[in-house]
Amino acid sequence: MAETVDYAPFETTTAGPVEPPAAPHPVTAEELSRLHDVSVELAVEVGRTQMTIREALALGPGSIVTLNRLAGEPVDLLVNGKPIARGEVVVIDEEFGLRVTEVLAPKSATEAAEAAHDA
């Protein structure tokens, strides 16, 4: 049995003149403190590669995946998928860590993300 659906009419509105976005104001310490307890995901990206689904399905124990980075090259520190810093991988008490060697400026972080995505 099919249900009947009632559609409600809507009115088209017209927007007024578009104003240019206001220049961002400097963020105060008080405003920033509201975000201190917000959780974010940090990840260290060693490298990337592209492959077909056939190649991915063929992976198994012992398979080697070639990445777009050279050994010893800095790795990226990502916050919610966006690069914010670079560093070197270190081992501390049999656990991996990252020694930050460079904090990326907002523009170079965007460029790094685009370059990594294109690779």
From TrEMBL:
GO terms for molecular function: cytoskeletal motor activity. InterPro entries: FliN, FliN-like_C, FliN/MopA/SpaO, FliN_T3SS_HrcQb, SpoA-like_sf. SUPFAM superfamilies: Surface presentation of antigens (SPOA). This is Flagellar motor switch protein FliN. GO terms for cellular component: bacterial-type flagellum basal body; plasma membrane. NCBIfam families: fliN. The lineage of its organism: Bacteria, Bacillati, Actinomycetota, Thermoleophilia, Solirubrobacterales. It is found in: Cell membrane.
